[in-house]
Amino acid sequence: MTDQAIRVEHLVKKFDGFTAVNDISFNVSAGEIFAFLGPNGAGKSTTIKMLTTLLRPTSGQIRINGFDPTREQNKVRQSFGIVFQDPSLDDELTAHENMEFHGMLYRVPSQLRKSRIKELLDIVELWDRRNHLVKTFSGGMKRRLEIARGLLHHPSIFFLDEPTLGLDPQTRNQLWNYILNLNKTKQITVFFTTHYMEEAERMAQRIAIIDHGKIIAHGTATELKVQTHTSSLEEAFLSLTGRAIREEEASGLDKMRLRRQMWRRH
Amino acid sequence: MLAIYVLWLRQLKRYVRSRSRIIGSLGQPILFLVALGFGLGPVFRRAGNGNYIDFLAPGVIAQGILFTAIFSGIELVWDRQFGFLKETLVAPVSRMSIMIGRTLGGATIATMQGMVVFLLTLVIGFRPYSLAHLPLFIVLMFLISLFFTAVGTTIASLLEDFQGFQLIMNFLVMPLFFLSGALFPLSGLSPVLTLITQINPLAYGVDGLRGALIHSSHFGIGLDIAVLAGLSVIMLTVGSYFFSRIEV
Predict the structure, then answer these.
(1) Which of A233, A154, A229 is nearest to A194 (CA)?
(2) Which candidate in A108, A256, A263 is best for mutational testing of the B interface (most B CBs within 10 A)?
């Protein structure tokens, strides 16, 4: 076992001439809580996709628990869990079925699967709702279920892409309690993105800020504040990335989110 | 193998639970059977072609299969961004097994839908000449399902968005159905229409179903099965290729 849960060296991703990720390098130690921040379109999602085997880098090196995502895909996949920005649960299945199918895909033996599903659904307080269809769940319940599901195969790294987006403070607080608890008791490495700066400041041991595909600052929250002569991470972030609003064109994904809402109504 | 099973089972569970969708999807077959079956029946009989309901029923069954299969394939577009697919893409299983599991699942529910429409045609007055070919009938339904689910999955692998959906409905699915001989006999057509029906995969499906249910087949059941099986293999291969290139 290596102490570096994630090692990234000179990582580059180009799409048809556009450089989304431009030669970034960073490490995340095992057991660390690491925040990956940046404005919209800065390269966060592209980086996460490369770390989680969904995209092939144009060049550079990645090691996840010592494995190469481009060559040892299944070893990498077995070693991390992920909560995506958009829900990836099956709405037409029950909470328990979603867990069960995940366990089967990750080849968790059936007895172990049973006990872990109970344990995890208890932790996220969904055991009583296990036989309800996911489409009857609130946004917060879905997130909790996704967290439980992502942990079912006992990953050593947990990726969370804006896990608290759109949730009320109570739910956010509760979710973070689960995550911090897991980090402490199971030494899980947590890699997360968020737009809530106070969340990053409170939870993360180290922070990297990416903009225009480059890592422009990294360190602890205190270091970033000292470096920028500011008193909060939010101010530090704004002073590093500028105050201009990033106008993104509505992406195909945004349009689909809209259409999906319309589709669902039928 | 386990991954294939999980994805297959998931499609099945979704289908069985969507009772309103199953019932809703019977609207069109009923309309075709009642409006065309009873409306054109007298003309058909006067032309010396026999009972139109018996002729039409296999075509309507094929239509039910076609729509269910294409849709379950195309559902991948949603699933890719907002559904279970993303979860499977980061799981330690091969893309190939995900594609095959999904397609087999879609094909199974399309076959079940075909069976439901078949039962419906019996209620409306369709009388198969014998049930001896029932196993053959099911095999044919499955082949039609498999091919068109693979077509749907392939299209979905190439689509970024749902904008092309209307295009696919109007320029692929509808023509496939209307030009398949589901509604009219294949003999005595103009050369252009004959050519079109000969290159329409659904025509072989409809023809095969007709052969199994009312013992009248234009191409011959052997050819129907060979064409459908061959096309399914090709489409699954092409689909797997495009599916393996999906980026989310």
Answers:
(1) A233
(2) A256
